[in-house]
Specification:
Helix content is 36%, strand content 27%. The chain is built from 8 helices and 11 strands. α4 crosses α8. It folds into 2 domains: 86 residues, no CATH class; 124 residues, Tetrahydropterin Synthase, Chain A (2-Layer Sandwich).
């Protein structure tokens, strides 16, 4: 009786693991990667090529191209295989998002040593040709992207100068009013130049597209 119950349990487990969970589907806004014993299926020896990286950086970041499973199904997988799904649509996240704390604005210091609060959203989309870095390169991809974005944003605010004053300083035009040049590092002047700040962030941080406001 015990042996029969044990065999029935094993049979039920195998049916569940091999037959029921062996089939899966991929939604239209998703792409999937299949791993076997933790190793993702690769496209031979092809590597991801990023034109924004230097030769020295390309040598350090050897990222393989993966076999991508497109929307559809049902697909079959073995019990030792695992499906990793990734949303590839454009998503928006609040600039103040931080899994470690609650905050209403992101604090930054201007060039004239004043503290300002930055709020807004960034929009991002996962690159389909580089899913290896997104799935296996870091533990928390969104946290990694947000940390990098905010560090670049704070550096830009800390060194921001009004474009109207830069040519005057470069030409050593001493007739310029010092008060006017001081506006280049004020919070009010940052507000007036938010489009420039957004354009700078979009240019230097490839993935996210910012929509920001200062307080």
């Amino acid at each position: 009786m015990f042996i029969s119950s044990f065999l029935l349990g094993v049979f039920t487990f195998l049916v569940y693991r091999v037959l029921i969970r062996a089939f899966y589907t991929v939604k239209p806004d998703e792409r999937a990667i299949l791993t076997a014993f933790g190793r993702a299926q690769r496209l031979g020896k092809l590597m991801v090529k990023d034109a924004s990286l230097s030769d020295e950086e390309m040598a350090r970041y050897q990222v393989p191209r993966l076999r991508i499973i497109n929307p559809g199904g049902p697909y079959f997988k073995w019990p030792w295989q695992e499906v990793h799904r990734v949303r590839v649509v454009t998503e928006a996240v609040d600039l103040t998002w931080d899994p470690t704390k609650t905050q209403h604005t992101v604090e930054a210091v201007t060039k004239d040593n004043l503290t300002t609060g930055v709020g807004g959203q960034i929009r991002f989309r996962v690159a389909e040709n580089n899913l290896y870095a997104y799935c296996f390169g870091v533990d928390s991809p969104l946290e990694h992207v947000m940390g990098y974005f905010i560090s670049v944003l704070r550096e830009r605010i800390a060194t921001f100068v009004d474009p109207r004053g830069q040519p005057l300083v470069a030409n050593n035009d001493l007739s310029t009013n010092q008060v006017e040049l001081a506006e280049g590092v004020s919070i009010n002047d940052l507000r007036k130049n938010l489009p420039l700040l957004n354009a700078y962030m979009e240019q230097h941080v490839i993935a996210p597209v910012p929509v920001m406001a200062l307080s």
